[in-house]
Structures
1.
Amino acid sequence: MYTCIVTCVCVCVADPNERAKDMINAYQRECSTTRVKPVTKLLEQLERLDDLSTPIDNLDLKGVKLDNASCEVLETVLSRVQTNTLDLEKTNLEDEVMQL
């Protein structure tokens, strides 16, 4: 089990025409398609976003129990937003999940 905070420079560039609501809808659709429960803590943070072109200082998933499927669905969000810090402390990630 890992306890970590990932600090990264995101190389993806958000589509300047995409709105936060569009990204949230895409995430929820992907969750529904893959039968993964959406991460409430993530949705709450995304709903506060106004502008996807500005990096999020800290995307906090601390304490959220993540597994392979939930990490795969998170890619829907992480490919659309820029974040300075991704807090994965106490997320129950195993070695194989960390290699996404």
2.
Amino acid sequence: MSSVTIIVAYLMKKHQMSLENALSLVRSKRPQVAPNEGFMSQLENFEKSMQVEQERKLMQPVQN
């Protein structure tokens, strides 16, 4: 896995950023960043799994 992919995934998870926003932030600091197609696919899947996780949390009943 490339270091760029790890950094983008970290930003997405830790700061609840979208793939697009995380990649834009990394590119603002290092413009030549260009994850290959395979890594982008993994990041897209990661983003989808985070969305599902967030939806599950919203659907859980509030516990007193």
3.
Amino acid sequence: MSYVKNLSDIPILFKIFTYCADTMPFQFDRKATERLIILYEQHPNLYDITSTNYKNKVMRTESYREIAADMKKELNIHVTYHDINKKINNLRTQYFVETNKIKK
């Protein structure tokens, strides 16, 4: 016998925990990161400002979806557009931090 008749009967903390668990970002290991970089290089419209499709948001989103599909197929991992975008931004930031350390 279920005591919960609808979602509003569930305490708010359980709702928050369930939402957070479902939306947790993928944790990239070294193998996944290396594969992401290789796949990212195959889509110049994501990083080459001279590319004709660089400003085309539809093409950029499609490229991210293709990368996610390839990672799922090759490594059997589920990553989202946001996971990939965040990881690429983190890698770019870390690259500039390290190069600035060398310059100093």
4.
Amino acid sequence: MHLSLDECASSVPRCAHHCTNTIGSYYCHCREGFILNGHNVKSKQFTAIKAPVSDPVASTYDITRGWYYWADGSGSIYKTN
């Protein structure tokens, strides 16, 4: 009897978004709006923009990459690298 380890059940996440366990391995896939770029997840919706923002209305932090995202009152989206 051969037991397969569930690599997705690890206490250390192997994938930034979704992990699918297979026999003897696993694969990563992304949430909608993102693509897998090698072993990293890349946003298809946002690009890095360096601009002063005087009226931020929302922000979030991506703990996996260490990036901050924020939006201004006109709907523009920004992120740090």
